[in-house]
Every structure is written in C-alpha cells, then in structure tokens.
C-alpha cells in the first residue's frame, strides 16, 4: 500500500511540474520575445511605451526565480492571470464556464458508467449469443464514430431537421423563468449535448466491462454460487460484476481525461457555454492567459478526481490493503 | 497454446472487415492526386453548386470541388495517423525495453512520467503548444507522439520484465549470448503484438486528434483536413448544404476510425489468450 501511495504522489508531483513547465517556462524559453509571441495576433500598435508597460505588467523584467515566485504565489491565491482580450480575470471567466462543464461531464460520466456496466455484464453473460454479438457489433460501430461526428450528426438530425431541441446555449436567454421552469429549460438544453457525450463514452466502458466480466465468470466461485442455487441476477451483479468492475475503477482517471476532451468538441458543436466553448474562443482569439488558465484548472480537476479515486480504491477492492 | 496470428485474423470477421475497409481508404488516399477531378486548392466552379456529374459532391463557399477536397483530406488524416503511430510506438518501445533492462532510478523516472501523462487531458496540452509555436503539422505530429507513447511503454516494460525471467532467455544468457542477441532473437518477436496493437490504437487517436484539432482551428488552414472541412461547413448550416458538404467528411472520418477500431479489437482477441472462447484447444 505504501509503495502504491508513493508512486501516485510521485506521478502527481510530476504532473504539476509538467504543468508549471508548460505554463511558466515554455513561454519564457521560446525563441524570440514572449511579449511579441503573446500579442502578435492582436491588432494593436506595439509602441516602445506599450511594450515596456507589458513587460512590467507580466513581470518579465525581474530575474527568473522572482518571476517564478510571483507566479506560484499568484497561483496559490487562485489568480490565474488576466485575459486582456476579454478584459476580465481569467479565473472569473473559467468559474463562469466551469459549472456547465461539470454538469455535462459529471452527468454523462455517471450515465455512461451505469449503461456500460449493465450492458457489459449482460453481454458477457450471453457470450456468443445473438444479443451479445449484435450488441458488440453495434458498440464497435458506435466506438468508431468520434464524438465530433456524433455531435454534428445529432445537431443535423434533431436540431436542424426536426427542430426538437435547441441548437445553442445552456438556457433560453431573458426567458425570466424561475424555479421549475428554469430547471426544465436547463435540462431541455442539456439533452442533446449530454446524449451525444454519453453515447460516445458508453462503448469504451462496455468493452472494458465485457472483457473483464468474461474472465470473472469463469472463476470457480461463480460456479459455486450457481450450484448453491443463488438467483442469476444476484450472481451477475453481486458476485461477478463486483470483481469485474475493478479494472474499470482504476481507469476512472483516464476516462475523465477522455470525457473532458469529448466535451470540448460537443460544447463547441452545440455552443454550450462551458470550458470547451471557452477554450474555443481562447483559441480563435489567441488568448494565451486564458488557455493557460483552462489547462491549469482542467489538470487540477483531473488530479483531484484521481486522488479521490485512489483513496476510494481501498473501499472498492479491500484486497489492496493486504497486497503489499 | 500456439497462436497463428494470420490464420486467426483471417477467421475473425470483424478484423477482416476492418482490414478491407482500411486498405480501401488507404488506396483512395494514395490515389488522391490521380482520382481527384479538380485541384482542391483552386476555384473550379461557382460557389455552392449542388452535386452534379461534374462535381460529385458540389462545390463549397469559395467554389472548391468538395469531392477533391475530401480525397486530399483523407490523405492528410491517414499520413498524420501513420506518422504519429510510428513515432509514438517507437518511443514507447525504446523507453519500455530500456526501462525493463536498465531498471533502478531510470526505470522509476520513466514509469512515473508515463503515469503522469496518463491523467492529463492531452488535447489541452496540444492546444497550448500549438498556440505557442504557431500551427505546423510537424510540430503537432511530434507533440502528439510525445504524449501518446506511455501505454506502449508500460505494456512493453511489463512484457520484457516477464520475458527476462523465462527459462529459455536465461539459458541463452548462460550460454554466453550477448544481450543484443537475446533481444532480437527472443524478446523483440514476443513484443510484436504489443507494438501492432499500439500502432493501431495510436493511429486511431491521432486521426481523431487531427480532425478535432483542425476542427477547433488549430491547424494551418491551408492544409486539406477533414476537421477543417467540417468546421467550415458548420458555418453554412442554414444554407441546407450540410448533406453534401458536412456529411461526407463526417462519414469519412467515422469509417476511418471504425476500421481501425475493428482491427485493434481483432488483434486484442487474437493475442490475449484469456479472451479466447475455447481455452483448452490442444496444440
């Protein structure tokens, strides 16, 4: 157990170092001038005074270690820099978008995990049968359709052709709806982005669970349970799936990174005002401080989830406690 | 149990479907300069022409032939996929084998970097790097390879560690075989499935990333790319041109990724003996 903890802490520290490298060191190591690189895309007159002002503002006239100290202090205070394009603190912009992404990604993660687990368990139980084969083929096909394409197709069919769902935003602006009406409106806008993101996540979960289930149902204890006459559903979910779920839970961190990537495209397609949309506008405006801020926040979120999963892992698999 | 990869692959319907599909797509991509009716970088007809005999998929907002653009974009996707897969797998192979053979501090550092890479949303890093360095395809190929090597390295390391302790490898060592000999005679051939698997899955990720990043507007807008086609077509949704402009790149990208997914599934079925249906097959 200690071995595992040390490994994880080392990986987390490395991730944070890498993040600092990307956000702090890389722009300063770039050939040429950081200020020119950062502002070259903008239409502004780069006079001598403006240039010096910018250098001072970014603290680039200080020695490197002092710059680093300032950077770390600011970061610790939750200051992610200032976006000159939007004329607002980066942290504020991110905090405005984050709840929408968390709503989308969180719900989608839970729904896809449940669907993936149930379908995977049922499929492996009927291995080689018609249900299993057709579901497997369907899932492999679905797995092949990238979230990007899935989102565009959903947009074309349900928004443009049938007009059933709204094609942009997370709620109707100026509708003035309160209480239940407001919640309904938000859910209404959530349906399509959520459905496409969830659909794009299910095949991965399904294939993983199906594979690991296939190995567990061969275990002698499953045979014993059947011999004892325990109900099938109980064996499937309480005996076999309980163990088959382990590889799934170790991959939660990876899946979170995946789903954030997926959300990036889905949000852009449906103009859903989360981090993905913010990233897109940061890219098109070449808003570097905002991009750095988004990277920092998303990496920190993934790390946090990983730490939580690691701490929960003992609960999910009590054997790890005695494993080392 | 003996594995006959090629025979097993031939019997795997999903794998064969994937292989046929990918070969068709690759052939199309190679032949793009020959079969594309027009120069995809040049005006060929008035804008927004509906599909016709002369323009199978019509023309786009600036009068480029969409069919020719599609063929050239497919070429970009496939080249990008192959380049990233080859570089990332090679890095993974070298780091994995060396970590297993050298061990100690070096092993620890390599594996912790691999752990760290696993949890970072790769695409954010690529976006940032692309923003610093200005979009250049080569830079992105290298950047993507540098963040995708870790799954292969991890698998290769584990396999090499277990092979090192095998009796026949020890026997060869005891008889005085140099490491280079055991490497290419005993260890490398056993690593082939991991390499093949890694290659296909990485090509799949790379194709997706290329389309996604160009969709977000990170690539050089003058390259032909499925993602760029999609992002331009998305701007004219209201003109009802989606079925001949937006849909073709979406389908092409999906076919490409589906075929690679089928192949990787088949490879996994064949080389992971635990997943086989009749485990007890005699030799």
* Distance separating the two termini of chain A: 5 Å
By CATH, the architecture of the largest domain in chain A is named: Orthogonal Bundle
Biggest chain contact: A-B, 59 and 49 residues
Number of strands of chain B: 0
What level of helicity do the residues of chain B show? Answer: over 70%
Unreliable stretches covering 5 or more consecutive residues of chain B: 277-283
Distance between the termini of chain B: 6 Å
CATH class category label of chain B: Mainly Alpha
What amount of the residues of chain B lies in strands?
under 5%
Radius of gyration of chain B: 22 Å
Number of discrete helical segments of chain A? 15
Order of secondary-structure elements of chain B: HHHHHHHHHHH
- Look at the helices and sheets of chain B and give the structural class: mainly alpha
General description of the model:
The complex is a heterodimer of chains A (about 325) and B (about 280). Chain A has about 325 residues and is an all-alpha fold. Chain A is built from 15 helices and 2 strands. Chain A has helices at about 1-30, 35-40, 50-55, 65-75, 90-125, 130-145, 145-160, 180-215, 220-225, 230-245, 245-250, 250-270, 275-285, 290-315, 320-324, and strands at about 80-85, 90. In chain A, helix 8 crosses helix 12 and helix 9 (about 220-225) runs antiparallel to helix 10. The longest helix of chain A is centred in the middle third of the chain and has 38 residues, at about 180-215. Chain A is globular and about 85 Å long. Chain B has about 280 residues and is an all-alpha fold. Chain B has a single domain, classed as Orthogonal Bundle (MetI-like fold), CATH 1.10.3720.10. Chain B is built from 11 helices and no strands. Chain B has helices at about 5-10, 15-35, 65-100, 105-120, 120-135, 135-150, 150-165, 165-175, 180-215, 225-235, 240-270. Chain B is elongated. Chain B starts with a helix and ends in a 12-residue tail after the last helix. At the A-B interface, helix 1, helix 6, helix 7, helix 8 and helix 12 of A face helix 4, helix 5, helix 9, helix 10 and helix 11 of B.
